[in-house]
Write a structure and sequence with these properties.
23 strands; 12 helices; about 475 residues; alpha+beta; nine-stranded antiparallel sheet
Amino acid sequence: MNSEIRNLEPKALWNHFADLNAVPRASKKEERVIAFMVEFGNQLQLETIVDGVGNVIIKKPATKGMEHRKTIVMQSHLDMVHQKNNDTVFDFDTEGIQMIVENDWVKAKGTTLGADNGLGVATIMSVLASDTIAHPAIEALFTIDEETGMTGAMGLEAGYLEGEILLNLDTEDDDEIGVGCAGGVDITATKSYRPIDVSENGVAYKITVKGLQGGHSGMDIHKGFGNANKLLNRILYDLNDILAVAEIDGGGLRNAIPRESNAIIVAKHTTDFEDKFYEIAKTVIDEYTTVEEDLEIILEECLQPQQVLSKEEQDILLQAIYVTHNGVFRMSPDIEDLVETSNNLARVLVKEGEMQLLCLTRSSVASGKQNLANTIRSGFELAGFEVTFSGTYPGWKPNPNSPILKVLKRVYEDLFKEAPNVLACHAGLECGILGTNYPAMDMISFGPTIKGAHSPDERASISSTQKYWKYVLEILKNIPLKNE
């Protein structure tokens, strides 16, 4: 499996990626990958620094003849999203990612691949380890916890970096150059409830919504994919009068569109309930058949729970979830086809007297982000939830006159005989945050083609990675002189 990856071209990049993917590196659990990067820098006898929050900085002098060019910061994040298919047996805390090659794609066996942002990390490692690649002075910045709060970028203090240009390697289409991104805020709604005992004449069922595509809650939010939490709630809402909810457990990370959601319920009228359930399930599946061909909505009997929500609490919960906006809220009026503001209802957990609903609201406009966050908070608070905002981070405002943008456009056109797509994205990139302490730094983002990030369908294009590597090498040769 992984040995096949090591024979792909460019070998240096894929081998470093394989080495990296052998190290567990969940967000907020980066101790091992930090140690891995420190050892890597030390083995190369390069200046290696770990800052106060855990970011790793490795500095390499310019190669001969490149000393008079501007110092660059090459930046990627060390952590990866941990998601797996329900039937995949895998321990992210102890096992390395198992990779396979299928035609032009590198994939993982039932889990996320970690190409986001592991291919960027491996790119930088390849440049640092090479004695043949021409480049200016490099400050390699490996940040932590990008996926669940961007706390690495937020914690990077002024004074660690001297570079004038930042190359962020976290864009996921090889014909795109990123010049801006959305900011975000985490919304957490919690509420306690008092369960009641189950009546003896009910039948218990487990309802499962699964098989959805999921994906990145920024980059994929406009594609119309199903949100498992919303679809399950729709079913529960329509059957509200003939069921009692015991538990709900759906979704996971805030930046992943939920692929699966489950509920334990007790039905009051078995025959009527099953008939109505399958009627509603068919309606939902038919609606999504074009974009979610693997969607399944399953009903199966299970052990009867001891307690359920009261009818009053159940009504309030299902209404609160129903009214919570999910998906695109507003398209940008200034940039064609750019999502300006959105929300992802990422997690629903109802169990043992506690309700927890988690959202990630994004916007490229700070006031728009606050507006939607307040809209969602208002709905939750009307339903009696306690609501907190956390993990807020700024967007990255596009600079059409960026000098490094001009370099990347020219190099791309020279190499590939076509113009790149210059755009802002709806994902959260670290550039906006890093710019708070390094406001004079000229920033740009690009990368190889990666599909299905944040889901077990994540895959990286081999041919695109080869194209991207060629692009990286040429960019390094064309960094402007210090006096330009």
